[in-house]
Structure formats: C-alpha cells, structure tokens
Amino acid sequence: AQKITQTQPGMFVQEKEAVTLDCTYDTSDPSYGLFWYKQPSSGEMIFLIYQGSYDQQNATEGRYSLNFQKARKSANLVISASQLGDSAMYFCAMRDYDQTGANNLFFGTGTRLTVIP
Amino acid sequence: EADIYQTPRYLVIGTGKKITLECSQTMGHDKMYWYQQDPGMELHLIHYSYGVNSTEKGDLSSESTVSRIRTEHFPLTLESARPSHTSQYLCASSGLQVNTEAFFGQGTRLTVV
Questions:
Q1: Residues of B in Cβ contact (< 8 Å) with A112
Q2: Nearest CA to B32 among B9, B6, B8?
Q3: Is the pLDDT assigned to residue A2 strictly greater than 80?
Q4: What residues of B are in contact with residue A31 (Cβ under 8 Å)?
Q5: Residue A104: which of B45, B99, B100 has the nearest Cβ?
Q6: pLDDT, position A52
Q7: What is the pLDDT of residue A1?
Q8: DSSP strand E in chain B: where?
C-alpha cells in the first residue's frame, strides 16, 4: 500500500499568493516523522520542514508551514507569499517503523509547483 | 548546509562498463540511503545501511550493489551498465531516529548508451 499520497501532479500559483500542497499518509505506527522536500530543476533535494507525530503544534519554517491533521492523516504544506524561486517539485515523505524495524524515508509522487509572475 | 557529496554529477558511459558512484558524508550519520529517480518522478529506495558493514536492499529491486566499509562512505556499483540503468541516483544520510531529516547529495545523473 502506498504510504504517502500526493494527489496534485501540478499546481499553479500567482506570485505573492499562498498555496497549499496536499499530502496524506498511511501508517499504523504511533511514532513517525513527516517531511517536505523541494527539488528544483537542478535535481538536488532540499529539506524544508519536519512534523513529528507527537508534536502538538503545526511546524513552521519561515514562509513554510505544515498543516498537520493527525486524525485525517494529512500533512499539507503551505507556502505563503510565493516567489518565482519556489517553482520546483515538492515531495512529501515519511519515516515510520516497518515490520522489520527499519525506519526508512519514503516519498510521495510529488507536486510540480509553478509560480506565475 | 548539508555535508554530503556525490561524484560524479554527470556520467555518460557505454553498455557493459562497470561503474561506481561515490557518496561521502561528514556529519557522522549512521544511516545512509541510495535512491533512484527518473526525471520528474518519485524517489525509489534501492539500498540503505545502518552503519559500518551493514547493507540492506530497498523496496525497488536493483542490479546495483553497495558497501559500507567506513561510516562516511557509501559507494554504489553497477558491474555491467545497461541503458535501463539510465536514471538519477541520489545518496542521503540521516540519524537513526524517525524524527531526523535526511540530507541529500546533489545526485548523479547516469546515462548508459
């Protein structure tokens, strides 16, 4: 079963507007971590923000915030005041413990964000 | 800034050649990973390691092999490259706990002709 689901293959946003990128996850493990990464056209993966399963508050890092709804198993990324440099692929990822005890990082299929001037 | 390095960044090589993609990190991380990614697609885990002398296969079957003789070094080897191996290969490292993020190298774009 897919652990991470990103249902938006592509999104467009006007410069200076806010945008929400959706992510839902599937795990039965009470302890897990959720991550968002940005991948520009150059190919590197840039860590943006982290949310722990036991965190009471939504994570924020500058213009990035994570809308964590644990009961719905969703971890949407909100980018405020979009900039042209935000145009990139965005990946949601999760670490949890599987049956073997491994806690690897698994990724969704990504959302390509395009910021329009 | 992450201290994890991959070489080469780009590699074009003929079918049947043996290649090794290098990955080194200076953060002292125990956990290291190799992911394979086709352009614009998701990342697939092909290998990971918990530390020295530990190597495990990931979810995506791969003909590549890895080794972990030193904590900081996690090279990936293809004994006989084929066009189907053309892809981007991303190396990453992290702490062992679920609440630690992974840091990625810049990737190696491999083309087998």
A1: 40
A2: B6
A3: no
A4: 98
A5: B45
A6: 95
A7: 55
A8: 4-7, 10-13, 19-25, 31-37, 44-49, 56-57, 65-66, 76-78, 87-94, 103-104, 108-112
